[in-house]
Amino acid sequence: MAKSTRSTPTSKTNKPAPLEGNKEWRKRGRVRHVGPTLGEKTWWENLPAWGRHAISLGFLLIVALGFTAPATFGGKKLAGDDTVRWRATAEALLDWEETGGKRALWTPNVFAGMPAYLIHDTAGPPSVDSIPSALRKVGLWPLAHLVVLLFGAYALVVFLTRTPLAGVIGAVGYGLSTYLPIILVAGHNSKFIALAWAPWLLLAFGALIRRPAGSGWQLAALLTGLFAIAAAVNLRAGHVQITYYVVIIAAIWWVAEGIADVKTGQLKAYGLSTLFLLAGSVLALLMVAHPYLVQWEYKAFTTRSAGPGGGLAWQYAMNWSQGVGETLTLLVSGAYGGASPTYWGPKVFTSGPHYVGPVVLFLAVLGIAGVARRSVFAFTGAGVLTILFALGENFSLLNRPAFELLPLFSSFRVPETWLAATALLLALLSGWGAYYVQRREATPEAETRKRRTALATAGAFAVILGLLAVAGPSLLSLEKEGEGVQIEQMAAQQGLDTQDPAVRQQIGQILSQTRSERAEMLTGDAWRALLLLAFALTLVAARLWGKIPSWAALTGLALLVTIDLWGVGRRYFNEDVDALRRRSDLAVAVPEGDADRFIEERVIEAGGPGTFRVLPPNPSQNAYSSAFYESVGGYHGAKLALIQDYFDRLLPDDSTGLNETAIDLLAARYVVLPGGALPSTTPLFQDPATGLVVAENPDALPRAFLVQDAEVIEDDPAMIARIRSGEVDLRQTALLHEPLPDGFALAGGRMPLAPAADSLLADSLAVDTAMDSLGARPLAPGVSLVRFSPDEIVWTVAADAPSLLVVNEIYYPAGWTATVDSREAPIVRANYLLRGVPLPEGRHVVTMRFRPESHKQGVTIAWIATLLTYLGVIALSGLLWYRRGHGTED
């Protein structure tokens, strides 16, 4: 236990009251084993432990059922915008699985092709998280995972404080914090699941690092296995960013435990616990070798590794940095206007604030001020750090070095997400605050100090809330930066003269009305918070002055926290939100317009997928088009860097808007644009509902074609400029980043390469007869498509000279292989982002398959590690139970 500094006198005896942890405290409390405890014996304390836990967990279950009722009952299902986008992105994969019987590893419909395991992954080994996932499939989303979250937070607080009602307060304070219902409505499901398992990971960490001295190797091994399972389950949620936050919290806690153990001479036990943690971490990583081995391989080719240090670019990563003043929303929900459009903070837009409320914050500060425990120090430090990390570019003094130096820090974006970890930490500290309120101190002086601390803390919050309620509109600007200019621009687009006094008056009235709405939200929520704080202080004071028992005070505080967070959360998660869809409507949740149906008919006429692509409007964010046909566009947080370069550097054009050569490059036979068409395209159809025009692009490159010329341009900017210029006929000449491998030459003679291998020429003659019997779709002179599936493409090729088969698929070397007449062949990068296969003269069958070795290895390792871990945990649990029942010592 950590020592405290010497306290000042607080009584007429002129003797300092002992602080928890110092020598005097230990002397006066030596008869206690855990710390100060409440001496009163009410009906609550007389209940058996299982009874108190049953009542507490029952209340949490009621909270979960009640809060998720709109999505659990009434025939509706929660499917936020991101969920619908995911459904659109995965639609082709789901259809293929239904007809083909197995999950594909590559999807051709998104961004001209990308790995499918980032969208709809193959199933890994089952684990404890399979239980709520199964309940989710039968309609209990998000109820099942909210129960996991509440029970986990409760277990963690009870583990720390040994106080069930404190566990209820901490669980509700975290589980109903406003960010969680907001991300549910937005459809950030993997993030919510990772946050649900976060308390369990911290619980497993705490149990292992604080295992009883001399407990024996069996318990240490069991706790190591449980820690590995908790870490693996958190990673399996599929949101590494949240797991990263929890690891940072655990690391700070580990440091706090280490400092305390060094002071108390328990360095050996600390070192052993650290070794067990490392072993559990390695085991957890092995358990999630699938899907993370193949995803780690993929990361090197994505925008997540496009920055200078192998991560994101600084500016992109720091988008959605929390404003410095915006941290007020932790205390007052409407301080910055709530959600867009009334939101006036520095972010582009937001779906709502990060709010934990005055009661949780009041109790958290009480816990920090009154409880000298290692976890309190750790959670306080971690809480401050997560808030500073959330500020992102608004506190670059910390975030820039972290971005450059901390492993993986630069791989994550949206810094405000750190506040989800802040909410967890504040909830845990509020549990410690509730523990501090209910316990009886060792001396009257300490009880007096507790009362003063409670009054001073409540007074400080009351001053802040009072200022915001009375003078908030004059203290805060309540106007988004550049908001007036944006309104002027909108007026100008409508043909209004922004210099006209009448127009300027209208603009001023709009700004004034918006500011008035924001002021009303600010003051209303400030008064609301002040009232809740008054109720909380009344309950705490009644307990500290002996007017009510502890259980009554803590029960009242738990109800206050529930009422507070429930009320604010219902603003964003209620029966009327668009994300709640009737189950019968889910099949048509992905919007399909007449333009999409028109293109689908063209796909059927062309013989099916694999013939052409479509360039949709806003391609870098358009998820819906990929539900119906092969699209150049898509929606994903980890795009291939090549396709991002296409959107940023190849496709835009200052004069025409879109570079025509870039459109041709990815075989976009149809271009969909709002209200018009490009000069080089022919309008074919206009959607009467949306106004979207489908235009045919006759110059689109085929999906596969032969060239006999090549030009080597090793510099990326030079190659991009060469493509954009349109000076090179890409149907005749391929642009390569490096010379073809030894043994291959093209007939055009522009590359000084070795002659073609005689063995390949001979092999080509052996397949002539076989090729004639294959049914194929012609794509280009000499090239026909025989088979097209997500993971395998087969062409027949007739080359009258040594040629390069340019395949209009995104270049991705980590898994795609090629064979020519059943013999392995190299795949080269052509035309910046396409594939090329060198061919000898003759007729050939060319096959490309996507079989990443890392995927197979990951699945095997994950199954073995998971089986060994679970069998080990079961065996050790049985052994310890047997030893305990028979009184056997280690």
TrEMBL record:
The chain crosses the membrane at residues 54-73, 140-160, 167-186, 192-209, 216-236, 242-260, 272-293, 352-369, 376-398, 418-437, 458-476, 526-544, 551-569, 861-882. Residues 1-14 have a biased composition (Polar residues). Keywords: Membrane, Transmembrane, Transmembrane helix. The keyword Transferase does not apply. Residues 1-32 are annotated as: Disordered. The keyword Transmembrane helix applies. It holds the Pfam family YfhO. This is Membrane protein 6-pyruvoyl-tetrahydropterin synthase-related domain-containing protein. It comes from Rubricoccus marinus.
